Amino acid sequence: MPQALVCMSHSPLLHYAHPPAETRAAVDAAFAQARAFVHAFDPDLVINFGPDHYNGFFYDLMPPFCIGYQARGAGDYDSFAGDLDVPEEIAEALAEFVIDRDFDVAISRQMRVDHGAVQPIEILYEGEVTAKPVVPIFINSVARPFVKMSRVRRFGQAIGEYFRDSDKKILFLGSGGLSHDPPVPQIATATEAQRRLLTEGRDPTPQVRAARQAGVIAAARDFAAGRADIMDLNPAWDRTFLEVCRSGRVQDFDAYTADEMDAVAGHSAHEVRTWVAAYSALRACGEYTMNYEFYQPIKEYIVGFGVTTAALRGDTRLPTLSSHR
Length: 325
Description:
This protein is 38% helix and 18% strand. With 325 residues, the chain is of the alpha/beta class. The chain has a single domain, classed as LigB-like (Protocatechuate 4,5-dioxygenase, Chain B, 3-Layer(aba) Sandwich), CATH 3.40.830.10. The longest helix has 21 residues, at 21-41.
């Protein structure tokens, strides 16, 4: 059965910030294109490569990769807070397959997934997060130390190899990036209170969560107005990354290093690791064509915003959509 892909940026600010009307309309149109692609493909199973923003994974134990056997939404920024429909037997078999290929992947029977993992599903299925079975795969994208990008690529490749001959239609979903540097504390420079958050911040009180989210919303407002002390977006870096995605030369991702990404694209640009894994998984299934691409730097969302879809070459059942770069 065939495989396909959607990779998109996410932002907790989608419902809290107010970009110009034409920008919001362009983003909504991109979401509609991705939604039409996914509905035409109609997957049997979604493999969801997602990051976390210290809502489910913390420095008390921070794996580079984790496959969820069961998962629940964290509910941050009013995102989905229920149980995901995870086919446990498939998740277990996938983990065994990956481990047999020398990836020491963590597993979780109580995974928490935040807006970074569930927002794309909410968008694609208009709020119905349980519309399709999903295997959630966490990729550490905010907490140093990071594994090499070549390791992320090979991890995604192993996932793709597992599903290459599946009797199910598989959608690989990656979420995060592109360039952005939101006010997420870094462990190297964190205050004592911030270190506690990064290490043991599970199940915050409503007051603590509201205060944390209010800080991000205020930072976005200041950033859009040119007042925030955070790194600017880098459209040139974003477009170069998208070119690698488009090319199918997933081995070119290996050249990306954590220090350079911090310096030129922002501390949260590491979320593109989910894209690297997803595109590498699809490439393991065969040569592909990116048949839709949207990109726009959006300061109100503190992110270089991208939306892409891709399908295996020769799969004529899926729509070829116009692109907006």
